[in-house]
Design goal:
178 residues, alpha+beta, Aminopeptidase, seven-stranded mixed β-sheet, 6 helices, 7 strands, 28% helix, globular, Acyl_CoA_acyltransferase, acyltransferase, transferase
């Protein structure tokens, strides 16, 4: 049902549509112009960067969102991650997507930590992180300036040792091509 495939050039127009939609951009640190030329430049800049990877989330071969590992630090075995559901018709399954990435990060890549920053107000995402065993580590006060005001950002992390103990999600394994 759910699958992940590496982001390709053919996806850029759809990803730009998602990324500039209000339900996605409201919780992103930056707002971007709906500019396909800049989207191609972003893709070319990041396509061969081995510190970040982007995958299209598909349900029955229909693209519904994007998930990524970013700031991948192989020396210290950690990475941030991000994701969003672009097609709101599939928001009901949003919570089922994360375990696939965590299993890949910990068991395939051998990472020790996955971490995420969440803008205050994105309560659903914070609740999801806690559901999967993340620890709330810090609040970065006035961390992002957006919409003419400062916003707090919550920092969460999940350690491999904590994930290993949470066996009920270990069956969620799929291929992520690097």
């Amino acid at each position: 049902m759910i699958s992940f495939r590496k982001l390709e050039e053919r996806d850029l127009e759809l990803v730009l549509e998602w990324r500039t939609s209000e339900h996605v951009t409201q919780y992103m640190y930056t707002d971007i112009e709906k500019d396909l030329v800049n989207q191609y430049k972003w893709f070319e800049k990041n396509f061969n960067d081995d510190t970040q990877y982007y995958w299209i989330i598909e349900v029955k071969n229909t693209p519904i969102g994007l998930i990524s590992l970013n700031q991948l630090d192989r020396t210290n075995k950690k990475s941030s991650f991000a994701y969003y559901i672009g097609d709101l018709n599939y928001s009901i399954i949003a919570g089922r997507i994360h375990p696939y990435l965590y299993n890949f990060a910990f068991y395939e890549l051998g990472l020790n930590k996955v971490y995420a920053e969440v803008m205050r107000g994105n309560d659903g995402m914070m609740k999801m992180h806690k559901h999967y065993g993340f620890t709330h580590v810090a609040t970065f006060k006035d961390h992002i300036y957006k919409y003419d005001q400062f916003h707090d950002v919550e920092y969460f992390e999940l350690l491999a040792s904590d994930w290993t103990e949470c066996t009920k999600f270990h069956k969620f394994k799929l291929t992520f091509v690097l």
